[in-house]
């Protein structure tokens, strides 16, 4: 197996942090070697220095896509941190239904991974609005830096074990059997989600309208405090007054809520 020198690791980890926010500490060195070993072997590189130069010089974006797909951890599942979805349905949506006068509801799943969170949000919205849904624009934006996980999300296909935690009514109303082991979300739900590749480290977010709800859960655990604070600032500037930010249960806003008001563990509100 190809080893990585201190200098090679420092250069590669700096590139990843500067461009994608992911903070690879020294103890992650073996993880980097393990995840990238096959990539270097396929490219017939003899060192990580060769691989680094290849990434820097590649203009197609293919090299960076492969790097990000290998480095990022995309562990997620349906109904993860379930109390967030309960709070959204019982508290947030009733408030927004009354306060959003133009009926243009904007929700962002930032760092959506393979789509479980976005599909859960789409089902909650459909169930909540019922016959009123015809009068609302309630598309969900779901973004990630990994094209690999986005391609999985776009299919809307999951195995039996993955959907086992969903309520039976949801499985009946929003899923169809592909075969004995696979389920696919109906077009009614799939069409409510817009998937886009997007880097949260972009200096300016390009959105024309602000969001009422942002879910960014278990993403900032990979960032250092400065990176996290800058991202929270951008979320704040991209959110409507009275909007809600949901982060992971293991995350916090560093004691400074950056203009957000604390609502409950891992839930914050603007204004």
Q: Examine the secondary-structure arrangement and name the CATH architecture of the largest domain.
A: 3-Layer(aba) Sandwich
CATH class of the largest domain: Alpha Beta
Q: Going across the major beta sheet, what is the strand order?
A: 6-2-1-7-8-10-9
Work out the strand percent. 15-25%
Number of structural units classed as domains: 2
* End-to-end Cα distance: 53 Å
* Largest sheet geometry: 7 strands, mixed
CATH superfamily of the largest domain: Vaccinia Virus protein VP39
What is the CATH topology descriptor of the largest domain? Rossmann fold
Count the beta strands. Answer: 10
Estimate the global geometry from the Cα principal axes: globular
Task: Name the helix and strand elements from N-terminus to C-terminus, one letter apiece.
Answer: HHHHHEHEHEHEEHEEHEEE
Estimated structural class? alpha/beta
Instruction: Round the mean pLDDT to the nearest integer and report it.
Output: 95
Low-confidence stretches: none
Number of helices: 10
Radius of gyration: 20 Å
The amount of helix comes to: 40-55%
InterPro entries: Bact_Chemotaxis_MeTrfase, Chemotaxis_MeTrfase_CheR, CheR_C, CheR_MeTrfase, CheR_N, CheR_N_sf, SAM-dependent_MTases_sf
Protein name: protein-glutamate O-methyltransferase
Organism: Clostridium chromiireducens
GO biological process, one term: methylation
Descriptive overview:
- It catalyses: L-glutamyl-[protein] + S-adenosyl-L-methionine = [protein]-L-glutamate 5-O-methyl ester + S-adenosyl-L-homocysteine.
- Its EC number is 2.1.1.80.
- Residues 1-271 form the CheR-type methyltransferase domain.
- With 271 residues, the chain is of the alpha/beta class.
- It has two domains: 6-71, Chemotaxis receptor methyltransferase CheR, N-terminal domain (Chemotaxis Receptor Methyltransferase Cher, domain 1, Orthogonal Bundle); 82-157 and 187-270, 3-Layer(aba) Sandwich (Rossmann fold).
- The chain has helices at residues 6-20, 29-43, 48-57, 62-71, 82-99, 116-129, 147-155, 168-174, 187-190, 225-237; strands at residues 107-110, 140-144, 157-159, 175-177, 182-185, 193-197, 211-216, 239-247, 260-264, 267-270.
- β4 and β5 form a beta hairpin.
- α2 (29-43) runs antiparallel to α4.
């Amino acid at each position: 197996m190809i080893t990585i020198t201190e200098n090679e690791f420092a250069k590669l980890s700096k590139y990843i942090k500067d461009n994608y926010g992911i903070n690879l500490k020294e103890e992650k060195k073996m993880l980097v070697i393990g995840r990238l070993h096959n990539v270097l072997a396929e490219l017939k590189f003899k060192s990580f220095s060769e691989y680094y130069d290849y990434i820097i010089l590649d203009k197609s974006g293919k090299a960076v896509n492969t790097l990000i797909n290998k480095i990022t951890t995309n562990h997620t599942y349906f109904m993860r941190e379930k109390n967030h979805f309960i709070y959204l349905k019982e508290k947030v949506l009733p408030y927004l239904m009354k306060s959003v006068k133009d009926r243009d509801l904007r929700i962002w799943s930032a760092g959506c991974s393979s789509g479980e969170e976005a599909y859960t949000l789409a089902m909650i919205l459909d169930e909540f609005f019922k016959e009123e849904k015809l009068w609302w624009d309630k598309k969900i934006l779901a973004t990630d830096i990994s094209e690999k996980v986005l391609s999985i999300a776009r299919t809307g296909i999951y195995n039996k074990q993955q959907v086992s935690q969903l309520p039976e009514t949801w499985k009946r109303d929003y899923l169809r059997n592909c075969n004995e082991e696979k389920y696919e979300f109906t077009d009614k739900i799939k069409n409510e989600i817009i998937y886009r590749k997007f880097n949260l480290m972009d200096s300016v977010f390009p959105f024309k309208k602000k969001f009422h709800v942002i879910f960014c859960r278990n993403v900032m655990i990979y960032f250092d405090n400065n990176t996290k604070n800058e991202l929270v600032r951008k979320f704040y500037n991209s959110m409507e007054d009275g909007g809600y930010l949901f982060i992971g249960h293991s995350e916090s806003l560093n004691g400074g809520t950056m203009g957000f008001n604390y609502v409950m563990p891992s839930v914050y509100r603007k204004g």
